[in-house]
UniProtKB/TrEMBL annotation:
Signal peptide feature range: none
Organism whose genome encodes this protein: Larkinella punicea
Gene Ontology molecular function: any one: DNA binding
Positions of region (Disordered): 44-63
Short name of one Pfam family: RHH_5
GO biological process, one term: regulation of DNA-templated transcription
Name this polypeptide is given: Arc family DNA-binding protein
InterPro entries in alphabetical order: Arc_rbn_hlx_hlx, RHH_5, Ribbon_hlx_hlx
Domain of life from the UniProt record: Bacteria
Keywords: DNA-binding
Gene3D superfamilies named among the record's database cross-references: Met repressor-like
Domain (CopG-like ribbon-helix-helix) ranges: 17-47
Length: 63
């Protein structure tokens, strides 16, 4: 059985929304589907990176 999805309000810059709409259309997705896809890909990338670098956002010049 698929997990239930949670709805929430998203405030977004109109120009960003236009770009998302174009991108979603190019990839045959809804805007909601495109946002979910982008977020899932970013989370996968973040998880992969966390294996080698515990703090990928850290400034290498500091510390």
């Amino acid at each position: 059985m698929a997990a239930e999805k949670k709805a929430f309000v998203l405030r977004i810059n109109p120009e960003t929304l236009k770009e998302l709409e174009r991108w979603a259309q190019e990839e045959f997705r809804s805007v909601n589907g495109q946002i979910e896809y982008i977020l899932n890909e970013a989370l996968k990338k973040r998880k992969k990176g966390s294996n080698s670098d515990p703090n990928p956002d850290a400034d290498p010049e500091v510390g």
